[in-house]
Design a protein that fits this description.
Chain A is mainly α. Chain A contains 1 helix and no strands. The N and C termini of chain A lie far apart (46 Å). The chains are: A mainly alpha, B mainly alpha.
């Protein structure tokens, strides 16, 4: 895998992780 | 609709069709027509992939689902980034490196002609019919909302799409997709901003109420095969569904076959992986905001105006009774929502809990009356009264300022057209390359194949419009075809997985494919409680298992396509 694709791959994984954390925070913060 | 809205829609249609006509210049042979001479940059392919997946049903149905069920549907997409990464290192280099026109063409090089023809035929059968439903779904909504004849709605979506797809081929389709993606994203952002500006209470308080109503519940970690949307069905079943869709469906494969290189093809898929979950979460959140908006505004009893009129006409007393009870329940819910929002800042924990409990009870009251109204609509219309697809269009038309309806309608057309164009282009490719050229005319001129390809695109376009026009009559047939389609998605993926295992032989792959489809069919018929998201995993697993067992003892055959696939840098 070439370096640009590897960089993109890490970005993909980071964005998914951040999105899932944000959704988790949204769910737990406003849960009642 | 106001003339300014019409001008916005007309400008959109003219730009898309005119741009499609401009793109006809590069298409003098079928490689240009179907694969843009493998010249597209990764970002254009990526946006095209995203626009193709984002159909009108996603735009209006998913937002509506957000309003009624909240965010949990986003779990469906959890497998997508995983699938994109797997495809990037497995199938993409194989298919791009093999220099094929269709994914199924690769299967003939690896196995035999019958495996190629069967998989391609299955694609044509399911996609040909589903293309009709992609036009039908928004057409039915527009027809009901605006009171237009269904045929005109189908023509409004279908005719411009057929024109630019027939004339410009994949160049026109991909570049139109790029513009359409911006139109869709722009419209969504405009609606979200309008919703936030018009929310009568602070957003933080509003989200607090949404949480109490269960609309912000995203994750469900229960491992229950009968539940469609759980974390596990998304991660496991969703991964296999997305692998099947992006790895073996010609409408998707053709996008990245048109990329300049294997790395550009990979990057285009990863771009789609970047944005899919955030974009879907945003679309669902828009629906949640609409739900919150209607807590403080009079919400329609039935969002489908045609059903509303039918109930009013056939059961006037019941309709009047439902309307008055609904108005009272809405008033109670509004008071409860305001109380919950204010108590949050001033009251004790017990008072906050009490106010949220009162809100939930008032919400249940509203839902009960809506359920009665939907049953009445089903009796009056003789069809399903599910009105999720009507929530956002009604909200935009009834509540947003002038111009928003035009932007929204342009976005719905863009979403529908981008999906249909990709389908038509890929249906034409499979028809011409996998059947016409393979079985009937093997050595004609490029000009001949180009003309046949354009004719095939037009014929599939007209077929899709006819199916869409008679969608209501063909309802059960379409359902059967869609159900049949779900039987073989995972099985076709299984064949592609077998193609990457050197020892597997053609008979094993073919019998494996049939076994996989039969296994999924058996599960769907005899164990209907298993959610459809698991079907793909079951199909792929059975095909791989049967294919491997039947190829036991075989040696790796000579595989030119595989060697070509390996020329890329993984």
């Amino acid at each position: 895998m070439t370096p640009p694709v590897r960089t993109t791959l890490w970005r993909v994984l980071s964005i998914q992780f951040v999105t899932l954390v944000l959704l988790w925070l949204l769910q737990t913060h406003y849960a009642s | 609709m106001h003339w300014i809205n019409w001008v916005i829609v007309a400008v959109y249609l003219v730009v898309v069709v005119f741009d499609g006509l401009r793109r006809t210049r590069g298409t003098t042979n079928i490689e240009g027509y179907f694969l843009a001479n493998r010249s597209l940059p990764w970002w254009a392919v990526g946006l095209s992939v995203m626009a193709t997946q984002l159909s009108a049903v996603t735009l209006i149905g998913t937002t509506g689902q957000g309003a009624t069920d909240g965010l949990k549907f986003v779990q469906f997409y959890f497998g997508l980034p995983i699938a994109m990464v797997i495809l990037g290192v497995t199938l993409v280099p194989f298919l791009h490196g093999a220099k094929v026109y269709t994914a199924y063409e690769y299967l003939e090089r690896r196995f035999d002609p019958k495996t190629r023809s069967l998989t391609s035929l299955l694609f044509l059968l399911s996609r040909g019919m589903s293309c009709g439903t992609i036009i039908a779904a928004p057409s039915v909504v527009l027809s009901s909302i605006f009171g237009w004849d269904l045929t005109w709605c189908v023509a409004l979506i279908g005719v411009p799409t057929i024109i630019y797809t027939v004339l410009g081929g994949v160049q026109a389709v991909a570049w139109a997709d790029v513009k359409q993606m911006f139109v869709i994203a722009g419209a969504m952002m405009a609606i979200i901003i309008a919703l936030i500006v018009r929310m009568p209470i602070p957003l933080d308080d509003a989200l607090h109420i949404a949480g109490a109503a269960g609309r912000l519940q995203v994750f469900d970690f229960s491992f229950d095969l009968s539940k469609t949307y759980t974390f596990w069905s998304g991660i496991l079943g969703g991964t296999f569904l997305m692998l099947s869709y992006f790895g073996t469906d010609q409408s998707q494969v053709q996008r990245y076959l048109a990329a300049k290189s294997v790395d550009e093809a990979r990057s285009s898929l990863l771009m789609s992986a970047y944005w899919k979950i955030p974009l879907q979460a945003l679309i669902l959140l828009t629906g949640v905001l609409v739900f919150l908006f209607y807590l403080f505004q009079p919400a329609p009893l039935l969002y489908n105006p045609r059903h509303s009129a039918q109930v009013q006409q056939q059961e006037p007393a019941l309709f009047a009774d439902l309307q008055s009870r609904y108005a009272a329940a809405i008033a109670v819910r509004q008071a409860a929502a305001r109380e919950a929002a204010s108590v949050r800042h001033t009251g004790t924990d017990a008072a906050v809990r009490g106010s949220l409990e009162a809100f939930r009870a008032s919400e249940a009251g509203v839902t009960a009356i809506r359920t009665e109204a939907l049953s009445a609509a089903e009796r009056a219309s003789g069809e399903s009264s599910r009105d999720v697809n009507y929530i956002i269009p009604r909200f935009v038309l009834d509540n947003l300022p002038l111009g928003f309806a035009g932007i929204f309608l342009a976005a719905v057309l863009a979403a529908a057209m981008s999906s249909i164009a990709a389908e038509l282009n890929s249906l034409s490719t499979a028809t011409v390359v996998d059947f016409y050229q393979r079985w009937f005319r093997r050595s004609e001129s490029d000009a001949h194949y180009l003309n046949v390809s354009k004719m095939a695109t037009a014929v599939w376009g007209i077929f899709a419009c006819v199916v869409a026009t008679y969608a209501a009559t063909l309802g059960s047939l379409i359902e059967v075809v869609n159900r049949f389609g779900s039987f073989f998605y995972g099985s076709i993926l299984g064949v592609f997985l077998l193609a990457m295992i050197p020892r597997v032989r053609a008979p094993g792959a073919f019998v494996g494919l049939l076994s996989g489809m039969a296994a999924v069919g058996a599960v769907a018929i005899w164990v209907p409680s298993v959610s459809f998201l698991w079907h793909n995993l079951i199909g792929a697993a059975v095909v791989v298992a049967v294919g491997l067992v039947l190829s036991l003892g075989g040696r790796a055959p000579d595989q030119p396509a595989r060697r070509e696939g390996r020329t890329s840098t993984v």
